[in-house]
Design a protein that fits this description.
Layout (H helix, E strand, L loop, with lengths): L5 E2 L2 E2 L5 H23 L4 E5 L4 H14 L5 E2 L5 H10 L5 E4 L5 H4 L3 E15 L7 E2 L1 H9 L16 E5 L4 H9 L12 E4 L2 H10 L3 E6 L9 E2 L1 E2 L12 E9 L5 H10 L2 H9 L3 E2 L7
Parallel strand pairs: 3-4, 3-5, 7-12, 8-9, 8-10
Antiparallel strand pairs: 1-2, 5-13, 6-10, 6-11, 6-13, 6-14
Length: 287
């Protein structure tokens, strides 16, 4: 960073007046950076799953509108397990998860607050030209028995399957609730997406693609959402759904985190969740 020699670890500015001014500018910039880091001490980072991230981000934006002194940050997905690890290790105050906590995770002092339910949706690139499938057709598409959208009433276009990891909540709930999925093996001619955002990106950008993810009506602008056996993912009767929640430790939770958790189950937040296609979950907020 600095030119010239060093003495006992301290930077020595060159004799040149121009270089001296440059050195002073750098020192001032470093001082200003240190002040800025302190100024944003109220930042609240929430790490974890990418499922339901668009709704979670909307909650963060609404909270910041009412609390401008707190910046809520949602880093890219590291999965529910990553969120759990970050909070257990005290690297973060809040985590976002798409599954309940295990007994061993609770033994580490973690608490769990469910916030809303989202359906596990099947969606496709608009080129598929179809918006309704049966459960058997869905299973046959993801297993590779159906390879062209024409076979299910869509366009004459090869189907390109984007699958998810087996330990993802969306896959787990589909295997538990959707007929034909319990022992389904994804076609070998499929592409693995490691996050919900990656799956949506590939499906929305690739003709003929089909994928899996949590539903919100924000998706409607990018992909075709499939009705399954006549049921849309926004319908209360739709059987496959996961719950998005936040995790924390009573021993380390901050005032800003408590305020955000309280907001996330407030009437205002519930209206926002419902408007985006989720189903609010009522729960006691940590006191």
């Amino acid at each position: 960073m600095f030119e010239g020699s060093h003495d006992e670890g301290k930077p020595i500015c060159p004799d040149s007046r121009a270089k001296m001014m440059k050195c002073r500018f750098i020192s001032f910039t470093l001082l200003l950076w240190g002040w800025s880091a302190t100024a944003f001490a109220d930042d609240l980072k929430i790490v974890g799953t990418g499922e339901g991230l668009d709704i979670v981000q909307a909650l963060g934006a609404a909270f910041m509108a009412d609390n401008p002194d707190t910046l809520v940050i949602f880093p890219p997905s590291v999965g529910s397990d990553g969120g759990v690890s970050a909070v257990v290790s005290d690297n973060e105050i809040l985590g976002r998860v798409a599954r309940p906590l295990s007994l061993s995770e609770q033994a580490h002092g973690l608490s769990y607050m469910p916030v809303f339910r989202l359906s596990s949706a099947i969606y496709a690139h608009p080129s598929a030209s179809i918006t309704s499938l049966s459960t058997s057709q869905v299973a046959n598409i993801f297993s590779g028995k159906i390879v062209n959208w024409r076979e299910v009433g869509g366009a004459d276009l090869r189907i390109k399957v984007v699958r998810r990891q087996e330990d993802e909540s969306t896959v787990i709930v589909l295997r538990e609730t959707m007929p034909g999925w319990k022992d389904l093996r994804f076609t070998e001619r499929s592409k693995l997406a490691t996050t919900a955002q990656e799956s949506l990106h590939w499906v929305s950008a690739t003709e003929g693609a089909v994928g899996i993810g949590t539903y919100s009506n924000i998706l409607e602008a990018r992909v075709l959402i499939m009705k399954i056996d006549g049921k849309h993912p926004a319908d209360p009767e739709y059987s496959s759904a996961i719950t998005i929640g936040f995790i924390y430790k009573d021993a380390t939770i901050t005032d800003e985190a408590r305020e955000f958790l309280a907001f996330s189950v407030s009437p205002k937040a519930k209206r926002l969740i419902s408007n985006l296609g989720g189903h609010p979950y009522s729960e006691v907020v940590p006191g």
